[in-house]
Amino acid sequence: MLFAIITFFFWLLTHRGRFGRHLFLLGQNPRAARYAALSVNGIPYVLYGLVGVASAVAALVMVSYFGSARSDLGRDLLMPALTAAVLGGANIYGGSGSILGTALAALLVGYLQQGLQMVGIPNQVSSALSGALLVVVVMGRSLSLHREWVRATWRRLFSHKTIGA
Fold first, then answer.
1. How much is the pLDDT for 131?
2. Which Pfam families match (predicted)?
3. So where are the chain's domains?
């Protein structure tokens, strides 16, 4: 329930408000955001504050689940979280993304990790599979963004005619 509430809040903030449009513009082109008279220096501080609050809520949930606090408690969640963000449509360089896509990808990656653990696969292997999924998604997105270059390279490599034919 808490996941749905936080997802809905950030969806409203980023996709239904002026702040979200400013945020995406700042991520796409900081110079254009400055020319549009946006607070280029202020928006990141607000965003860092919101991410800090969301991280504090996540830390409270983790500490209440495990019953103790350690500095490395979320270490194993870094790769699945990054995979979910990229799989959900977030651009590594900023300026694009979807909260709902990231939330659905987080559920998918979470169910994948839990399913692998239920089958008896060790955490190291499931982390490696999560990393492999991340590499496949990044490669797929890169190939889709550079489609013309891929086609030209493919034609150049495989369109050789045989000599004497």
1. 84
2. BPD_transp_2 (PF02653)
3. 1-71, 74-165
Q: Which residue has the tokens 């939330």?
A: 103
Q: Is the CB of residue 38 less than 8 Å from the CB of residue 26?
A: yes
Query: In a 10 Å sphere around its CB, with 0-12 CB exposed, 13-18 middle and 19+ buried, how is residue 26 labelled?
Result: buried
Rounded Cα gap, residues 91 and 103, in angstroms: 15
Question: What is the mean pLDDT of the segment spanning 113-133?
Answer: 87
31: how many CB neighbours lie within 10 A of its CB?
8
Contact 117, 65 (CB under 8 A): no
Does an H or E element contain 165, and which? Answer: none
Banded model confidence at residue 162, pLDDT cuts 50, 70, 90? low
| Residue 102, number of CB atoms within 10 A of its CB | 21
Cα 27 to Cα 30: distance, rounded to the nearest angstrom: 6
C-alpha torsion angle, residues 123, 126, 131, 135 (rounded to 10):
170
**Contact status, residue 27 vs residue 95, Cβ threshold 8 Å:** yes
**What CA–CA distance (Å, rounded) separates 113 from 118?**
9
